[in-house]
Amino acid sequence: VGSSLNDTGDGLKTNFVSDKSPAYFAEMYRRDKLHGGHVIMLGSGNDAAAESALNAFPGGLQLGGGVNADNAAHWLEQGASHVILTSYIFKDGEFNRGNLDRILEVVGKDKLVLDLSCRLKDGKYYIVTDRWQKFTRIELTPDTLRELGSSCAEFLIHAVDVEGKQSGIDCELIKLMAQHSPVPCVYAGGISSFDDIKQIKVLSGGKVAYTVGSALDIFGGKSLRYNELVKFEQS
Prior knowledge:
Layout: H1 22-31, E1 37-40, H2 47-56, E2 61-64, H3 72-77, E3 82-85, E4 90-91, E5 94-95, H4 97-107, E6 112-115, E7 118-121, E8 124-129, E9 134-139, H5 142-149, E10 154-158, H6 171-180, E11 185-188, H7 194-204, E12 208-211, H8 226-234
Parallel strand pairs: 1-2, 2-3, 3-6, 6-10, 10-11, 11-12
Antiparallel strand pairs: 4-5, 7-8, 8-9
């Protein structure tokens, strides 16, 4: 839940643990033609599980978690449509242009998604890294979005303060994304109902996509049925 994941396990909050494999969900998304989902490796020892999901839906899923210039090509070869970057380009709290340039040489901007997930501090949004534990000194502003948008195909932005809590969406962040992102962008965090999803569409004028997890019945949620959501988006 949110930024509760850490190396020690202290304070860890878990919504749901599935008895299904990553490949099971990937095959379900493939069947329902849901392209653009995210396979995120939160820690070590997840390579085989991630590969199984990517192999089950070649070209349909994005891969993030520990991606760098040395392994990005491998994940594309395994079937990822894009690789997702955060910590590799925001190192020690600062934007590392050299690392971004290195990975662009390997995969190109059309295969690159930048994860700008953020938390509020002193009334401002700051990009966070390392499983959302560490604040960078990079504020998420219109200028930041415009600058980074020239080097990627898409943004993925979690509102970390509400992520996993099914407590409602961050309307101000969605408006910031809609008004200033020069590339397609995906919002995540706090979605708990169809009303939240409809509000995202209204607030963004249809410019911001979304990802939803813990509210879905397939992930133990009570308020959103996966099959109904698929029908809603396909209608």
